[in-house]
Design a protein that fits this description.
Blueprint: E1 2-3, E2 8-12, H1 18-27, H2 29-33, H3 41-45, H4 47-59, E3 64-70, E4 75-85, E5 88-95, H5 104-118, E6 124-130, H6 134-142, E7 146-153, E8 156-164
Protein name: Ribosomal-protein-alanine N-acetyltransferase
Pfam family, one: Acetyltransf_3
Region (Disordered): 148-168
Length: 168
């Protein structure tokens, strides 16, 4: 799915994305660690195995992983649906530091909501965000998620969100 305002495409994760995803994660590691737990050195040194495992989860229908790819082929974000079960999934996303604050996260989440509804037939999404990460909470609110409770994250207290994908 093309996001014309950003000249990026939302694509299902594929085997051919491995190098670009690794570069994205490495380039943004310190930035991401300021918002969410650091993935640790092992994540980077054995990324090929991790990528293969993600593709296997996707093939099994457990998760649906997506990347945001710019016109140079670089990954500039990830938007994922995890733990698909009973018509529901958990949304997670990461946007490159150089794209932060430009609306790409909101556009990407909106695009994935539409894919979740129309292509995957999901009925509801959940998400969570640290109370330390107001930007992520704002993305969830702007895209129609509503707070439904509190949670605990590695960075302290957080908020749980839900979104119904069923027509009212």
């Amino acid at each position: 799915m093309y996001l014309p305002d950003y000249d990026v495409t939302l694509e299902p994760l594929g085997a051919d994305h491995a190098d670009a995803v690794l570069a994205f994660e490495q380039e943004n590691r310190q930035y991401f660690a300021s918002w969410i737990w650091d993935r640790g050195d092992e994540f980077f040194t054995d990324y090929a195995t991790r990528h293969a495992a993600l593709l296997a989860e996707q093939e099994a229908g457990v998760c649906r992983f997506h990347v945001l790819v710019d016109n140079t082929g670089a990954v500039v974000g990830r938007v994922n649906l995890m733990d698909l079960e009973n018509g529901s999934a958990e949304l997670g996303y990461r946007i490159a530091e150089k794209w932060a604050g430009k609306g790409l996260a909101t556009a990407a989440v909106r695009a994935l909501i539409e894919v979740a509804r129309t292509e995957y037939g999901l009925k509801a999404l959940t998400a969570g965000a640290s109370n330390h990460n107001g930007a992520s909470q704002a993305v969830l609110t702007r895209t129609g998620f509503r707070p439904v409770g509190s949670s605990s994250t590695d960075l302290g207290p957080g908020t749980k969100y839900e979104l119904s994908l069923e027509s009212e």
